[in-house]
Design brief:
Layout (H helix, E strand, L loop, with lengths): L1 H11 L29 H5 L14 H22 L6 H21 L4 H22 L3 H23 L6 H15 L3 H24 L12 H27 L1
Helix pairs in contact: 1-3, 1-4, 3-4, 4-5, 4-9, 5-7, 6-7, 7-8, 7-9, 8-9
Length: 249
């Protein structure tokens, strides 16, 4: 259900449209979508990927966003519950949701809308503060603030040095990525910060190898930042431990 709403966010926010009015409708003919056709994933399968009224194709991205969101929600919940951080689950599900939306929007229009990024600062701050209060431990919240400021500052310096490399939307998103990763640990923060650059480099090499571009080809960086942060939530601790062990040999 959240994934279905994210599809609305992905389509309407870049266009400056309301998320409430009008209701879900076919972009081609404007016919309202019937409730039983709007069931996540299953609705698209029943319609065979076409509008019930005009037969226009419905992008496969719609069920994919719904399915990916469901899988990530389940995985993140399982991971944090395993770390005895159940109180932080709402914050990380929120981050996962906006991450899916921002990644798709950045791939579409090459920008990260302030309408999503900026309100996420107070929302995540509030959710993490509730988690810290529940755990009776305020240190992780302080780490989140420091981590957010640190990664924000790093990206700001990178943009000022090489403006063609990334945009200020990436800088604003960096504060969120730094905060949610540092709240868990500095190991998760370090791996999450590095993983975004690593994934971006791998994607760039893949584009060059497939002859779809060259070293000057611009790729949206937001999806790699989000993917790196989510990856760090799952493997940040063991990867950091492995790296430190490697350095100690």
């Amino acid at each position: 259900m959240v994934g279905s709403f994210l599809n609305v966010v992905i389509h309407r926010v870049p266009r400056g449209e309301s998320l409430i009015h009008p209701g879900s409708h076919c972009p081609a003919c404007g016919t309202p979508i019937k409730p039983w056709h709007n069931v996540p994933v299953l609705g698209w399968l029943v319609l065979r990927g076409r509008c019930a009224n005009c037969g226009s194709p419905i992008s496969v991205r719609y069920p994919l966003v719904e399915l990916v969101t469901a899988v990530l929600f389940a995985a993140v919940t399982w991971r944090l519950a395993g770390l005895s951080l159940g109180s932080a689950i709402p914050a990380y599900l929120y981050f996962t949701a906006i991450g899916v939306a921002l990644a798709a929007i950045d791939l579409d229009v090459r920008r990260l809308p302030n309408a999503i990024v900026l309100p996420s600062y107070p929302v995540l701050a509030g959710l993490l503060a509730i988690s810290a209060a529940w755990q009776h431990d305020w240190w992780p919240l302080l780490w989140a603030v420091v981590g957010g400021l640190a990664l924000f500052g790093l990206y700001l310096v990178l943009v000022l040095i090489y403006p063609a490399g990334m945009g200020f939307g990436d800088v604003r998103l960096a504060g969120i990525v730094g905060g949610v990763t540092a709240y868990l640990s500095w190991s998760v923060f370090a791996v999450g910060a590095f993983a975004g650059f690593l994934l971006g480099a791998v994607a760039g090499l893949a584009v060059i190898a497939a002859r779809r571009g060259d070293r000057r080809t611009a790729l949206p960086f937001g999806p790699f930042m989000i993917a790196g942060a989510l990856l760090a939530i799952f493997v940040g601790e063991p990867v950091a431990a492995w790296y430190l062990d490697l350095l100690g040999r």
